[in-house]
Amino acid sequence: MPSQRTDPQAKRGELAILGQIRARAGRSRFPSLALGIGDDCALLRPQPGQELAVTTDLTTCGTHFRLDWHSPESAGHRALARGLSDLAAMGAKPVAAFLSLGLPREFANPTGPWSASWAGRFVDGLLNLARTYKTPLAGGDLSETPIPLADIVLIGSVPAGQALLRSTSRPGDLLYVTGWLGGGAAALPHFDRLSKQRQRKNQARTGGLTPSNIPKHLKSLLDRHLYPQPRIAQGLRLRTRSLASAAIDLSDGLSTDLTHLCEESRVAAEVDAALLPIHPGADLSYALNGGDDYELLFTAAPGARIPRQIARVPIRCIGRILPARKGQPTITLLTPEGRQPVTPQGWEHFR
Amino acid sequence: MPSQRTDPQAKRGELAILGQIRARAGRSRFPSLALGIGDDCALLRPQPGQELAVTTDLTTCGTHFRLDWHSPESAGHRALARGLSDLAAMGAKPVAAFLSLGLPREFANPTGPWSASWAGRFVDGLLNLARTYKTPLAGGDLSETPIPLADIVLIGSVPAGQALLRSTSRPGDLLYVTGWLGGGAAALPHFDRLSKQRQRKNQARTGGLTPSNIPKHLKSLLDRHLYPQPRIAQGLRLRTRSLASAAIDLSDGLSTDLTHLCEESRVAAEVDAALLPIHPGADLSYALNGGDDYELLFTAAPGARIPRQIARVPIRCIGRILPARKGQPTITLLTPEGRQPVTPQGWEHFR
Fold first, then answer.
1. In this predicted structure, what is the pLDDT of residue B206?
2. What is the ipTM of this complex?
C-alpha cells in the first residue's frame, strides 16, 4: 500500500534488489524469450505448433525448508527443482522461470554484500540449477513477508497434443518409476539430529547444514534431499519416443501421487513392494509415503519397450494398472504377507 | 516437507481446498487453454504468430491489503487486478491466470462453509474479476503461511513484435494517462478512520469494510481503491491502432512509474501539474506519489491522433518526453510557481 516509508537506516530497497537479481539472471539470448526482466511483463515467443506448460509452486520457510537445515543455495535449488519436476512430468522442455520472492526486512537489508546475504545465496542456488537446464529467469516480483518464501513459475514447451498427462492411463498398463524412492524423506531425521548437535555446540543455526558438518557417509542421502535433480531428460525421452501412457512427478510421495494419477485416469493400481527401487538409507515406508523424491512415475502399454535406463537414471517396473472397482482400494501393495490396501499418506497441507 | 501430520481436528485439507477452487473456477472452454487445473501443469495453446506476456505479482497481507480494511473479495479482486493491469500495459489480451495461495491454518480450516471462509471469499472476488475479463483460472498452488498471501500469475497474448514496451519512448513524444490519478491512495486515510471507528464500537475488525459501513459520499473514492478496474480495453486499443510509442501501468505511483519508463527508454519527462486528472477527493501529492491507481501511462508521437476517451475512460495529455541530460532531473513538474524536479516517491518495498 502506498503509505510512504522513509527509513534512513534501510540499506537496500526493492529496486536495488531487483537490479541485483536482474544482473545475476544474465543477458544470455534464448530463442523462446523475446523480452526478459525489466518491463511490465516478460514476452515469450512460442515456436509454431507448441503448447506451453505452466506450473506454479509456492515454497515457504518452515514447510518446504528450514533455516537450520537448508542452506540458502539448497532452498533456492529445491524451489526451482519443484517446478522443473512438474515440467518433466509433462514431457515439456523448460522455456522460462519466474520468481516471486517474499523476504523479511532483515533478509533484504543484511549488513554484508548481496552475494553473501540469504536472498543473494537463495537466488544463486536457483540460478545455478536454472543454468543446468538452460532456463532463463525471465521475471518475478518482490515483497516483504514475515518469513522467507518463493513462488516459482515454470513455463515449458511441448508439441501440441503430445504432453504426458495424469489422466490417460488404462487398465493393463504397467507402472514404472525413474531413479530411487524414499531418499528425499529418509534424510530428514538426519537433518534433525545434525541440527540438534550443532545447537548443543552453539554453532550457527540459520545457515543450514554445509558440507563441512555433514558426515561423509551421509552425504549422498542428504544431497538427495538438498539438491534433487528434476528428471527433465527422462520426461522428454518418454514423450518424444511415445513410451508413456500417463505420468506424474513424485513430489508428495508415491502413495499420494499414484492416487492422483489413478483418480484422474479413473483406474486402480497394484504395486509390488519387492520391485520398489528403495534409496540406500530409506525403507519401504519412506518409499511409499515420503515426499521430495522428484522422480517420475509413469505408465506404459504392456507392449511398450521401456529402456532400462534413460540418461543414466534407471527405470524400474513396480506394478500395473487395474480397472477401478467400487469398494476396492485404489492402490494395493503386494508383499510376502499378501495384498494390502494403501492409503495416501504423503504430504498434504492443512491436514 | 514430508514429515506426517495427522491432526484429527483438521477440517479441511489441501486437496479439499483445491477441489473447491477447481469447482469454482468452472469448466468453461477457452480456445487458448488446452488443459486447466488438475495435472502437473496447465497447457496453453498460443495462436500462431502470438507472443505470450507473463507477469507475476505477490500480494501480501499487511503490505498490499489489511484484514480490517479490505474484505476478502476486495483482496482477491485487487490481487488479480494487479496482474491484469500489467497485461493492459503491454496491450495484451488475458489468456489465463494462476494463483499460488498462502494461508494460515485457521484461514484454511474455518468453522463454516468454504464460501463463507476468508479463502473462499478471496477466491470468489478474484474469480468475479476474472470472469469480467474472460480469464480462466488455470492452475496454482497452496501452502501454509503465517499470513494470507497470494502470488498471481497472468498470461496474455499479443501479436509478435507488437507489445507496448517501457523502453521505446522518444524525445518529442507526448505523455498521456488514462482515467484519474490519486484516488487509490487518497482512500487510505478514510480506511484508517473508518476502521478505528468500528474498533471503538467493538465491531468485527477482520471482515474488511463492507458497503454498510462506508458512508455514501465516500463510496466512489473507496471503491476506486477496493475494486480497481484494469485498463485492458484501453491497452488493447492503443496497441491495435498503433497509437502508443511506450506504456507502463501506474501501480506504484506516477513519480515512480514514470521514472521506470524514462530509465528504460533513456529519456526525461516534463509533467504539467495543471493537466493532471486528479481523482475527486485526491490532491496533487496523491496524484504524483500515490500508488494503486492501475491506470495506464503512455507516450505517443506528437502527430498521433489520440482519442479523448477509450471505452468510456478519458485519456489526457499530461506532459511530454525530453532528451535525458546529465545533471538534469529525470522528471520535471511544471507548476504556477515554476519548474520543480520530481523524485520517485511512490511505493518501494524495503525502503
1. 62
2. 0.91
